[in-house]
Amino acid sequence: MKYPVLGALTLVLLSQFPAFAQAVKSSRGASSPGHPARKKAPEPLEVNPTPVQAAPVPNWLASTHALQPSATMLHDLVDTRLEVRFDWPRQWLLGVATITLRPHFYPQSQLVLDAKGFDVKNVEMVNGPKKGKDLKFSYDKKKLTITLDRSYQRTEQYQVRIQYVAKPNELPKGGSDAITEAKGLYFINPLGNEKGKPRQVWTQGETEGSSCWFPTIDRPNQRMTQEISLTVESSQKTLSNGLLVSSRRNSDGTRTDTWKQNQAHAPYLAMMAVGDFAVVSDSWRGKPVDYYVDPAYQYTAKQVFGNTPEMLEFFSKKLGVDYPWDKYAQVAVHDFVSGAMENTTASTFQQQLVQFTPRELADVTYDGSESVIAHELFHQWFGDYVTTESWANLPLNESFADYSELLWAEHKYGPDAAALVQQTKLRNYLDEAQTKREPLIRYRYANQEDMFDRHSYDKGGRVLHMLRSYVGDEAFFASLSRYLTQNKLSSVEIAELRIAFEETTGEDLMWFFNQWFLQRGHPQLRVTHSYENSQVLLRVQQVQDTLYQPVYRLPISVATWSGNNQSTEHRILITKADQTFRLPASSKPALVKFDDPGILLADIDEVQSQEELLYQLNHARGYLQKFQAIQGLRSKSGDLLVSSAFRSALNDPFWATRTTALEGLRRYRGAEGSVVRKDLQRVALNEKKGTVRATAISVLSSFPNEDFSDVYNLALKDSSYAVVGAAVVALAKAPTSATRTQIAALQNTRNPSLLTALSGYYGLNGTLDDYPWFLQRSQDAPPEVLYVLLENFGMLMKRMPPIEREKGIQRLETLARTHPQVYVRLGAYKGLHELVASMPVLKTTLQDIRNKEKDNDLKAMYALLQ
């Protein structure tokens, strides 16, 4: 789905407001563990009769919401044909929909369609003896209720034609963390008066946005074939699902393109995009693979999207099911309301995720745009080919797409790259779990948008990683192939996935699916070990609150390392809240490593000595173990052995290990001071990867009262924007008149990371001369920059005469009240808050902003700033 880029930024905000986790309860609520599986009823998990810890009800256990069952199917969608044209000045879609349906089982004489915010002009019967007859209907701006000409049986298809006008801007505002608006149809710069922004129309269907631009049964358990004819200006390109089957020039100078989707898919996956796109063509096994981008980015499009054919081949072979659709296109659009969306055969992307200048490409890593590209492509199997029957089962779409990011990294870049994905995703979930813990499959929620969270994505992907480890690679992918083949072009719930694994492996896996998919929470483990009588005594305590979470059954691998650098793997099965395992060892091991491969989804407190951590760092098999060792040793970085090990890790083959080692040397105060600083300068100037060079500069700047300006000034000319931005941040702590001129030369950049750094520099060191820069950038900077830039704008204005602040204050107030992005409103509010001490009158303004804010989480953040 909607790749939750903005949800990730919300986690960043949470990290900047430590008290927020305690002050704000999740608005999404808890759900019950139980919706019975279709083929087997889940069995209860083992729960301690005496809880490990008796605690108050945790803040993530909110009130129970109403049951949200799958939508009842009175009718089956069969086919939808649309004829659409656009009224750009009024931002309307003028449409004719011809919909083919049949009763699902029981006879029906009435049809109810989702149709939001339309003017409905006419409804008529298309087929049968009363063809062309106008049908009676009622309409409440949400539901179109049509009285059919007679009662229809489940063996009978019928067609209705609806003439309508869609007016998306008249809809009530909706949205969530993952998708910021929910009006389905979006006109971008419709009058063409926004400089530097193209005119575009695009759609976003998930979850129920398709019914904002065509009448349908807007539920994920429906499927339809589709044909869309778009009449557009002759210069515009179009894209929709399926293949372009005709393109006709019209006498009025317009053009009508017809796109046909021959295999049925869910209504929320219908899409269209219109704009001045450059189309860069590629192919896979003879099928078209196209990239739609702004013309300015056509020459870098293949560098961004160019691995798509290889991904198609890899995923097809890995799953044992070839990519099932006629084509695959990817389109970058402006002001997209999410990160990306997996529309069938045509994924849509937020343009800033996939459109880069040649210089910006140097900073693009596989865990950036490439992971999003893999994510949306994998949805073409998991979500499009096989679709969740209800939003309660959303992880059947999103967990798999999330896990594809690890699969691709593993295939293309190796096990260290996959381990970095694993680590990042686990941390994302654990951060969210501080304020929210829900079952993955949850049948109780306030709103279906609440399902798009770090549980459905990151936690679900980690659960699949554990399942893969448990059954083995061959069985895992054979089970996925069975699941896709048996359920192709249909909707499913969690039982189908479980049954596919059970039929493949021959094992009853109810215990796994019950504890990981149907129960909330995760294991919180304390692991200690000792050595006696030729045995390692490994004690594992599950310390999670078992009033609300299960005692987990955990098959785990433990490695013991002997002094001759040989390791022995031990498989253990944890089933109790407190267990001690005896592992044979002829001598005291140099290292005992719990969950050696780093598979487990858990919060683990593993007690290890400094000697063990050093051994682990020096003998680690991969990135995860090295990272864990460096993190465990950071507080001991002044020790000569530790700092030497960190310096050695600066030469590690994997860039993220080098970055972690650099962070371990931040504010270093040990005996190797001069050597460490020389190493840091060497990395800052000579390291091949920009991300690592930037980190080295940041670490150098952590040493107080030390002058590395020569390094920073050289970095201002670096090819990497990340490095230049790090140098600007470093120089902001110790500005000089000489560097101000160099930094001023960067002001016209449009690069987000550099814009953010410049705003910090001027926020700390700017003068009235820099005021116009902030005024301009507060208008044209992307949202992810504005959050930081607007607070820095307030910092600058603190040093300005109050009489000069009027335009800036008005700008901040407008953004705090009206910007669609929550975190931009927060940034503007913080910018105003910076000025309260010198302008007490702003307290009234801030109070009014707080009172009128409708987002409860944001209001709680505001409360923390008072």
UniProtKB/TrEMBL annotation:
Signal peptide stretch: 1-21
Its Gene Ontology molecular function terms? alanyl aminopeptidase activity; metalloaminopeptidase activity; peptide binding; zinc ion binding
Cofactor(s) required for function per UniProt: Zn(2+)
What residue stretches are annotated with the Peptidase M1 membrane alanine aminopeptidase domain? 307-516
Q: Which CDD domains match?
A: M1_APN_like
What ranges does the record give for the region Disordered, renumbered to this chain? 27-47
Highest taxon of the lineage? Bacteria
- What biological processes does GO assign it? peptide catabolic process; proteolysis
Q: Carries keyword Hydrolase?
A: yes
Q: What is its EC number?
A: 3.4.11.2
User: What top-tier enzyme class does this entry carry?
Assistant: hydrolase
Describe the reaction catalysed, as an equation: Release of an N-terminal amino acid, Xaa-|-Yaa- from a peptide, amide or arylamide. Xaa is preferably Ala, but may be most amino acids including Pro (slow action). When a terminal hydrophobic residue is followed by a prolyl residue, the two may be released as an intact Xaa-Pro dipeptide
Q: What keywords appear on the UniProt entry? A: Aminopeptidase, Hydrolase, Metal-binding, Metalloprotease, Protease, Signal, Zinc
User: GO cellular component annotations, sorted alphabetically?
Assistant: cytoplasm; extracellular space; membrane
Q: Which PANTHER family match?
A: PROTEASE M1 ZINC METALLOPROTEASE, PUROMYCIN-SENSITIVE AMINOPEPTIDASE-RELATED
Please state which protein family the record places this protein in: Belongs to the peptidase M1 family.
The name under which this protein is listed is Aminopeptidase N
Classification of source organism: Bacteria, Pseudomonadati, Bacteroidota, Cytophagia, Cytophagales
